[in-house]
Amino acid sequence: xxHRFALxxxxxxxxxxxxxxxxxxxxxxxxxxxxxxxxxxxAAATDLVAAGKAAFAVCATCHAVEAGKASxxxxxxxxxxxxxxGALADFGYSAALKQSGLTxxxxxxxxxxxxxxxKVPGTSMAAxxxxxxxxxxxxxxxxxxxxx
Amino acid sequence: MNDMAKPPRSRAAKWTRRGFIGAGALxxxxxxxxxxxxxGNPVGKLGPxxxxxxxxxxxxSWVKIGADNVVTAIVPHCEMGQGAHSVLAQMLADxxxxxxxxxxVMQAPADGNYVVTDTARGFVAPGTLDAPDWLEPTWNxxxxxxxxxxxxxxxxGSSSIRTTGQRTMRIAGAAARQMLIxxxxxxxxxxxxxIVTANSTLSHQASGKSAPYAxxxxxxxxxxxxxxxxxxxxxxxxxxxxxxxxxxxxxxxxGAAQFGIDATVPGQKLTYAAxxxxxxPGTRIASMKADxxxxxxxxLQILNMGDFLAVVADSYWQxxxxxxxxxAEYTRSESAIRSxxxxxxxxxxxxxxxxxxxxxxxxxxxxxxxxxSVSAKTFTAEYRAPYLAHAPLEPMNATVWxxxxxxxxxxxxxxxxxxxSAAAKAIGLSADDVTxxxxxxxxxxxxxxxxxxxxxxxRIGLATGYPVKMIWSREEDTQKGLFRCADLSRFTGGIDAxxxxxxxxxxxxxxxxxxxxxxxxxxxxxxxxxRVAEAELHLPFAAFRSVDHSQQAFFVECFIDEAAHAAxxxxxxxxxxxxxxxxxxxxxxxxxAAMSGWGTKPAAGRGRGVALVQSFGTIVAxxxxxxxxxxxxxxxxxxxxxDPGFAMNPDGFRNQMEGGIVFGLTAALHGEITLKDGxxxxxxxxxxxxxxxxxxxxxxxxxxxxxxxHLGGAGEPGLPPIAPALANAIFAASGxxxxxxxxxxxxx
Lengths: 148, 748
Hints:
- With 148 residues, chain A is mainly alpha-helical.
- Chain A has helices spanning 48-55, 95-98, 106-114, 116-119, 133-144; strands at 7-10, 27-30.
- Chain A has one domain (7-34, 42-144): Cytochrome c-like domain (Cytochrome Bc1 Complex, Chain D, domain 2, Orthogonal Bundle), CATH 1.10.760.10.
- Helix content of chain A is 25%, strand content 5%.
- Chain A is globular.
- Chain A binds chain B through residues 1-2, 4, 6, 13, 20-35, 38, 57-58, 60-61, 64, 69-73, and chain B through 269, 271, 285, 288, 290, 294-295, 297-306, 314, 402-405, 425-429, 459, 462-466.
């Protein structure tokens, strides 16, 4: 059988504190991205930032990363490393996140992505927890590489 | 302002126009087709959306004219085989004096500017349709607002022609014609009254000037919108009432027509999702095991969405094959109903509790109990109708692309604005961030009045972030959708000494739409009590073609037939005797009796049955002749007489009667969804069969045009009479009384 790079993300069942009706997947198994050759290990595996970029595809549903681009369902993450939590004017953060006093170091980001509502109870980030530590590390490395 | 464009009631009209501009609402009623083109010009706003093509000019909200003199009607209803697109254009084109060979149809975008105000009004407050002219703008504005708030862009209720056609498209065409004349009169320096129009051409005899509409389209859009354009009288119709060839047929014959399932996303490679909903309504997925699916070719993602599973893959086949290997456990249902027997026991319990007088009375007249106590003869009957699936040939599907806080959806739907709102809500966007594309529907039948499948696709699209086409398998479509309700209906009838039906006592458990479907008020019956004693339904409900009429006509018209036999009278003569106050119904019944040679004796082994139903404003009587000589029913002929007021396209109307009859025969003979362990047992056309060509009899349809002002519908009214007419024919031929559908199972 072909070797496959399987990512398993167990989504949070809890709905966002803001009362959104969005029901994210209970379980989302991502085997590969469309257009990626079947069976080949993703090129990302050899390069942490590239691996993070590939892993970020799921996050990109809500988060834009291009400099200057408007926030979507989640805030734009361009330049997030080093930024104060809740800093973007164009995004309606939860009160919890705004008042968290956090500054997004790589360590804080890693901890938040591991368990958003554990790290900041009341955050409106209902989906997207990443349980795999390697994958988190890659995503954070990718985010750190994004500068305005 | 030029004379021709001046409305007859100019002061009211001016007030009206300002009122509308102030409210920002788009009008579509009897007196107004849109807000004035200036100021607050909707043509300027809508033009880029609906008339962006080279040389195209939007004249008012509902019509554009191209440089090639092609007239395009912008139609706010969907096309699902019923032919509404073409006939709505035909009505607009007639009032516009357009050349039919140069008329095209465009689906109006899913946009609040194209709500079907007159459909909403016709259903919610039909009394306002005859409002005095000075009140018309108020009603129109109110219902436009209500329609916008309620996302009322809907195709259903056999309503397109009789509401939007009569009160929007014709007026839009007439107004556009007057605007073209006004523009030409101004340019030519002649009196508007001297300009004549025909075949999309303006001409002025005295000066010899003539021009195609295209030449004045842009100028016409600058003219004032006439508020009360004169509409043609039936004697002046050129296209209305004719079999103008349907605009959608050529592309369906060549295969070029694009249905929802054919959707592509420009510039993108599609991925495909196969889905499996929980088998029992109301349950959840407790656990998912997808080890095998993970290893299968083409698989991109495997999703447990809580209430359904999805596999996303490079092709639909790969997705479905992988999904077939995914194992899941489900939570237990709280419903006490596990089987079909349980469902009917629940109905029976509700009816037992209601007894002869209980439940909520829907129709009450005279003194039923008293009349029954003095009747010369009484009889009882209990009828059963099963759950039905809609089984459109195109299974549920939707293509979605969610990205950057926006969503695009390509799907076959009867309710594009409601689907848009439902999808937006499900993925946390505002409706304005969701764009709907509306391909042709491969069948709707009420199933596509629901947006469940659009929501599922949107949720998958949110999870993937790339374009996905979700397609339900046929099994999924048959088992996991929403259904025509099952029901049980009990009657007691009383016949007096003269053989007349004097008492009608009835109770059933399911009451949806139309509210009056359980009654046949055109029959003179002095004492009547019709009640509903509600009972729980295990499967979710969706309107089915003709909705409650689909089961109620079977109950009522079999009951009437049983009453005729109890009275020892001929079923047609028995009905005619009750139609003294309903001349149109009488005429329809007499027509079908004449067509079918009712008074003649059928061949040996054969019998004829009749039914008369009014639904969606149209009166339909059908006679079935059935041959029972082989021990099983074989239909030899169906005759249908119908009075829709006026058939705008008689060929299309006959087509809808035939389609309703065939769809109704599928249900009457074969249709049955049953339950086992809380889940639907049938899956595909092998165990949920459609009527086959060898079972389909010749169908003769005749039309009576008895009221060209108040029209009835076409899409549904052909269906209700067929099941009772067939059951009554079987009784006539064999003496076997069918009180439970489907019929085939009584002869298996």
